[in-house]
Specification:
It is a single chain. The chain has helices at 3-41, 68-78; strands at residues 51-53, 61-65, 84-88, 91-95, 101-106. By secondary structure, the chain is an alpha+beta fold. Strand 3 and strand 4 form a beta hairpin. The chain is elongated.
Length: 107
């Protein structure tokens, strides 16, 4: 084997390990951020979960939709009207009244 082939094989062997490591880091960060959001805005029912955009893309963000009953419960719990924004513990929750979607950003 030539030196170029050995280098190429070592890079190809390390690629799956790197992908696995990045996947584990993403899963850990998502779980940690989701836990933080639920502890801040809905500690009893833990209704917040969804798509997580990690830090390198922008601020850590969690986005999804809520069921109508859950949306009403959270709005009444947080005293929000149509479009609501609440800041607490370094996070900002934005609830959209039209379709029950939410965004949670880390500040």
């Amino acid at each position: 084997m030539t030196k170029t082939q050995q280098t190429l094989l070592s890079v190809l062997a390390l690629a799956p390990i790197l992908v696995l490591l990045l996947g584990l880091i993403y899963a850990y960060q998502r779980a940690r951020f989701t836990q933080r959001v639920n502890a801040t805005f809905d500690p009893q029912e833990k209704a917040f979960h969804g798509i997580f955009l990690p830090w390198p893309v922008g601020r850590p963000t969690l986005a999804s939709g809520l069921e109508p009953e859950t949306d009403r419960r959270i709005r009444s719990l947080l005293d929000l009207e149509n479009v609501g924004t609440v800041r607490s513990n370094g996070t900002t929750l934005i609830l959209h009244a039209s379709d029950g979607t939410f965004l949670v950003h880390a500040d």
